[in-house]
Design brief:
It contains 6 helices and 8 strands.
Length: 220
């Protein structure tokens, strides 16, 4: 059981804004979750994961990236990715004031990609990464791989990926993960696309539990 409250930290620039899930008996660890290019921190997948993880006593922050704080709709502008990474770094700093244990950083698609770029440059920032539908390449453009930073990624990772994701097949992702020197685990979601199949009732019941089980195996 947990309580969800609005969270704002305006003393940092960019500011940190979102929703904080506080378990009754926290285990000392925390997970930060952020969204993709077309969504916000209230995306149903992030909400379901936050509730599932907080039920297992993780403190969870769902946060909006800076570009989403500035505009309620639309994708991030080209060239603003560094500011979004600054927002993630600030989210880690804000959560560090709340917990005494490990901090994990997670994101769907664009949010996860920026988390990996940030951690490739700052390997000691967080204890691990939860990467939901990593956008390996633009749809139908497999030659435009987003893996240049992978050889510098020293942070342990859990990737969750649908087998029908147009941003990269599971096979393509498996091959790309060989570039990462740190431990990297992959949870495949059969038949799911970029949204991880999070539309039906069964998916909403089962997927967060599967992610949590894989996460605790990767990060015991």
């Amino acid at each position: 059981m947990s309580v969800s409250t609005r969270f704002t930290e305006d003393s940092l620039t960019p500011s940190v804004r979102g929703s904080l899930h506080s378990p009754v008996n926290p285990n000392g660890d925390a997970l930060i979750l952020t969204h993709g290019a077309g969504a916000n921190c209230n995306a149903p997948l992030l909400l379901a994961l936050a509730e599932t993880f907080s039920a297992r006593e993780y403190t969870v922050l769902r946060c909006d990236l800076p570009f989403r704080q500035e505009r309620p709709t639309g994708p991030p502008f080209p060239g603003n990715a560094e500011r979004d990474r600054d927002g993630l770094r600030n989210a880690v700093a804000a959560v560090r004031k709340l917990v005494s244990g490990r901090i994990f950083l997670g994101g769907h698609s664009y949010g996860g990609r920026q988390a990996t770029v940030l951690c490739a440059a700052e390997p000691d920032l967080v204890a691990g990464l939860l990467l939901l539908s990593y956008p390996l390449h633009p749809p139908r453009k497999p030659e435009q791989l987003r893996t240049k930073h992978f050889p510098n990624l020293q942070t342990e990772c859990l990737f969750v990926h649908g087998t029908r994701d147009p941003f990269g097949s599971a096979e393509e992702l498996e091959n790309a993960l060989k570039l990462i020197p740190a431990r990297r685990d992959l949870l495949k979601v059969e038949g799911a696309g970029h949204d991880l199949g999070f539309k039906g009732k069964t998916a909403k019941q089962e997927l967060p539990d599967r992610v949590l089980a894989a996460f605790t195996a990767t990060f015991p």
